[in-house]
Design a protein that fits this description.
This protein is of the alpha+beta class and about 575 residues long. The chain is about 35% helix and about 15% strand. The protein has 17 helices and 15 strands. Helix 12 packs antiparallel against helix 16 and helix 13 packs antiparallel against helix 14.
Length: about 575
């Protein structure tokens, strides 16, 4: 029999000192009680961070301490920079009381699993099944250095991380049918959706210490109801919503504790003692609870809002659209390109009326905006956006998206000049990319070729966005604590002057690559009854320069007022 591994007291969370230094593995008890001494949680894959936060760290705090009733109480917790002696005592008492429920390998009630879970044929699978970065099944490349039959072992700390990750991000499609699951047929369950986080773009807030990060991700409000429990307190077989049996349900979560510790899969880790110590080499993953949709209490996502009464575009014709849907991230798209959603206060939408559609930022960002006067406009808030892109019926992982942005708190105020400036900058970057794409299209037409299709290949506008990316991030960091309109305008002018040069560098490369015959140009028919249009290099260049001047109007005005203006 394998030894126990208690998440409360055995080291498994990799944490660096807040002041910087080498990260070391810590127990849950140390990580929580001394959270003020640690920096950001170090993980193998960015998608593990929200899994650990939601499945363990945040629910322990919420269940042990409750949550602040309002912003004033939240600020009283935050301002101390660490847990009060009374809060430390309650956290310690909670971890002591529930220690047995945090044993990863308990034979009866293993943490986050179902004790004795088995298939009809008592089969298990390679532990690589729960490792998102390991190729398994049809994903193993033909000429890979390893095959699915090769042994794959995980340390207890690694197994804990991937267990939590699977509950949040697992792929969809067919899962092993577990004995005791009345909905299993022929040893399988079908129709499984992805894990709940796989259906949204996750928005995490980060502070200067782990303590601050935990509080920034803790929404204020009423305490949990008696029915809202974390999964480790819903393990009784007689409980119809027990997380400790092979049975599963399609249902809505009871509250935040239920939502954060949602058991989307029934899992059993199979450990064994090896020459290297205790290792997990085999696993069983079966169907788990299904959430019909992301509930409105979900604090870690931005939302796409639909007008009340609008019709759904889904396959269910005539069905009313959900009033809000989680906003998903797009692969290859920098987070600042979605500032219109990131900086969309929900209260602004409510005031606009029922017929308005658009975006709403996450509940936690909305809360941070309300706390800005107390936190201070210069507070170094960081926003992390995490998501997954699935392919082939969501049964495989195509891409993992991660980005982190410095975000000025003033930008979360709907009426602030900082917010208006940042939204304008993001829009200017998109317009510059479009202008370069139009230049490329005109140059190709001058050669008698068709423009690059918008959905195929890499268009040169993407090169512009890549070149502008560090400039936007620098501006975001530089706007922290800035309230004076003159300084904001100066920052925008500096941005435009740099963007002026960066966009021209990309455009100039396109112009330099054009052969001589393109300068002669070609005439293209515009349709019956319309005059022909001539496409040649000088016209394309002039059109781009005019459009760039319109987009970067501050830089254009400064250039014209200069005693020695440059041509480009």
């Amino acid at each position: 029999m394998a030894d126990g591994f208690f998440l409360t007291d055995d080291p498994w969370l990799l944490l660096p000192p807040a002041a910087g230094g080498v990260a070391q593995e810590r127990s849950l008890r140390t990580a929580l009680l001394e959270a003020h001494e640690f920096g950001d949680l170090v993980v193998q894959l960015p998608t593990q961070r929200p899994a650990v936060m939601r499945q363990v760290l945040l629910p322990v705090i919420l269940d042990a301490l409750g949550r602040p009733a309002d912003e004033r109480e939240w600020m009283s917790w935050f301002s101390t920079g660490r847990w009060s002696p009374e809060q430390r005592s309650r956290l310690e008492a909670y971890l002591d009381a529930h220690r047995e429920r945090f044993d990863l390998f308990d034979p009866v009630q293993p943490f986050g699993q179902v004790g004795g879970l088995r298939s009809a044929k008592d089969e298990t699978k390679n532990a690589a099944l729960i490792v998102a970065t390991a190729a398994t099944g049809n994903n193993v490349p033909l000429f890979a250095s390893r095959t699915e039959g090769d042994a794959f072992s995980l340390t207890p700390a690694q197994a804990a991380h991937w267990l939590l990750h699977t509950q949040c991000w697992d792929t969809a499609a067919i899962k092993t049918g577990a004995v005791g699951d009345p909905k299993a047929k022929a040893g399988k369950t079908t129709g499984n959706p992805t894990g709940p986080l796989g259906q949204m773009g996750v928005t995490l807030l980060a502070g200067t210490t782990l303590f601050e990060t935990l509080l920034l991700n803790l929404p204020v409000g009423a305490p949990p109801t008696s029915a809202d429990l974390p999964q480790w307190r819903r393990r009784e077989p007689t409980n119809p919503r027990s997380a400790g049996t092979p049975r599963w349900q399609e249902r809505a979560p009871e509250g935040l504790l239920d939502l954060w510790t949602w058991q989307s899969r029934r899992i059993r880790l199979v450990p064994e003692n090896t020459g290297e110590g205790l290792r997990v080499t085999r696993v069983l993953v079966a169907a788990g609870d299904r959430m019909p949709h992301a509930p409105e209490i979900e604090p870690h996502t931005m939302w796409r809002l639909e007008p009340t009464g609008s019709r759904s575009t889904s396959k269910h014709k005539g069905a009313a659209a959900a009033p809000r849907r989680p906003l998903r991230l797009q692969p290859g798209k920098a987070a600042w390109r979605g500032l219109d959603a990131l900086l969309a206060p929900e209260r602004q939408f409510r005031e606009a009326g029922e017929k308005t559609s658009g975006f709403a930022t996450s509940r936690l960002l909305d809360q941070a905006g309300a706390l800005a006067p107390d936190l201070g406009e210069a507070y170094p808030l960081r926003v992390e956006l995490v998501g997954m892109a699935y392919g082939n019926q969501s049964a495989v992982i195509d891409d993992v998206m991660f980005d982190a942005l410095p975000l000025p708190l003033a930008a979360l105020d709907a009426d602030s000049d900082v917010r208006s400036a940042l939204l304008e900058v993001a829009e200017q970057a998109e317009q510059l990319a479009t202008a370069v794409n139009h230049l490329s299209a005109d140059l190709r037409r001058a050669l008698g070729a068709e423009p690059i299709p918008w959905d195929k290949g890499q268009r040169p506008g993407e090169l512009v966005l890549h070149a502008l990316d560090p400039l936007v991030r620098q501006l975001l960091a530089g706007m922290r604590g800035v309230q004076d309109l003159e300084r904001i305008e100066a920052g925008q002018l500096a941005w435009e002057q740099l963007a002026w040069r960066r966009s021209w560098e990309v455009a100039d490369r396109l112009l330099q690559a054009v052969p001589v015959e393109a300068f002669v140009g070609r005439k293209v028919s515009q349709g019956e009854g319309k005059p022909e249009r001539t496409h040649r290099v000088p016209l394309a260049e002039a059109s781009f320069l005019k459009r760039r001047g319109e987009i970067l109007h501050r830089a254009e005005a400064a250039r014209r007022s200069s005693p020695h203006p440059v041509s480009q």
